[in-house]
Amino acid sequence: MLFEVTRTSRNYDYEIPHPKCKKITRVYTQVRNFTSPEEYDNWCRENRWLIRKNEFPWLEFGTNHRYNENGCIMRDNGTSDTWGIEINSLEELLDFQRSVGESIILQISDIDKKTPCLEIYDDYRE
């Protein structure tokens, strides 16, 4: 199974987080807490100063427009390079954690919202 790997101290930095990692490319997925593209577009018209380029209107940018399991709108918008590692057993995961020597947080990738992500927790972030 492929895991994205990040470090708390270098969140989304391009430096390799661990020597065993390889460069991987993920599809960048945008999720907005709106129940329809129309609701999002109406909000954008009222709050134009908050909107970044290539974000509005919703259906004119990105591809694969859809809804997530919570009913929020989603779309793919380009790709992003990051770091990853292939881990296929609990033993391999524990070996990786021992080689890191830090706590590891299991979460979901902020890039594609589906790839499991191992964050090497080497700094305080709360």
Overall mean confidence score, pLDDT: 91
Note the gap between the termini.
29 Å
User: Could you give a short account of the major beta sheet?
Assistant: 6 strands, mixed
What count of helical segments does DSSP give? 2
Please give the radius of gyration in angstroms.
Answer: 17 Å
Please identify the oligomeric state.
Answer: single chain
Low-confidence stretches: none
Class from secondary-structure proportions: alpha+beta
Could you estimate the helical fraction of the residues in percent? Answer: 10-25%
- 3D shape: elongated
What is the total tally of β strands? 6
| Percent range for β-strand residues | 35-45%
Helix and strand pattern: EEHEEHEE
Compile the SSE list and pairings.
Layout lengths: L1 E6 L14 E11 L4 H10 L16 E5 L5 E14 L3 H11 L2 E6 L7 E6 L5
Parallel strand pairs: 1-6
Antiparallel strand pairs: 1-4, 2-4, 3-4, 5-6
Structure description:
There is one protein chain. With 126 residues, this protein is α+β, with helices and mostly antiparallel strands. 17% of the residues lie in helices and 38% in strands. It contains two helices and six strands. The protein has helices spanning 37-46, 90-100, and strands spanning 2-7, 22-32, 63-67, 73-86, 103-108, 116-121. Strands 1, 2, 3, 4, 5 and 6 form a six-stranded mixed sheet that branches. It is elongated, with a radius of gyration of 17 Å.
